[in-house]
Amino acid sequence: MTDSVCRHDVVMPLEDSAVFAGVTYDLNSSYTDRTGSVWRFEDTVSDADRTWDMSSSDHCYKESLADVVLNWGPLRVHATKPPTSLFYRHT
Q1: Which of 11, 16, 17, 30 lies 20 to 30 Å from 84 when distance is taken between CA atoms?
Q2: Nearest 5°: phi and psi at 90?
Q3: What own/partner pairs with CB < 8 Å and gap ≥ 24 does 25-31 have?
Q4: Model's pTM, two decimal places?
């Protein structure tokens, strides 16, 4: 059985990446669009097109990954979050 989480009444498998138009995106990374806006993945999925939601400090609302790529793409990796294991002391 696959681990899963509930996102807005939709059960989605736990994932680290999303694929759109043949490109794989790391859900833990932020991306810069062609205008210089930085986008980060949210923990929700768009009801309209079923791709992951993204947010940007330059926009007041969420956009789906599909909308961001189609309207402001291409996206380039801006930064990647370090693994959470770096924040915990293992004994």
Answers
A1: 11
A2: -90, 135
A3: 25/52, 25/65, 25/75, 26/77, 26/80, 27/52, 28/80, 28/81, 29/77, 29/78, 29/79, 29/80, 29/81, 30/77, 30/78, 30/79, 30/80, 31/68, 31/75, 31/76, 31/77, 31/78
A4: 0.72
pLDDT in tens, the chain (91 residues): 444 444 344 444 557 999 999 999 999 999 999 999 999 999 999 999 999 999 998 888 899 999 999 999 999 999 876 655 444 444 4
> In this structure, what token pair is assigned to residue 9?
């009444």
3-state secondary structure of 4: strand
What does the pLDDT read at residue 82?
61
CA 15/CA 34 separation, integer angstroms: 26
How many C-beta neighbours within 10 Å does residue 51 have?
20
- What element of type H or E holds 12? strand 10-13
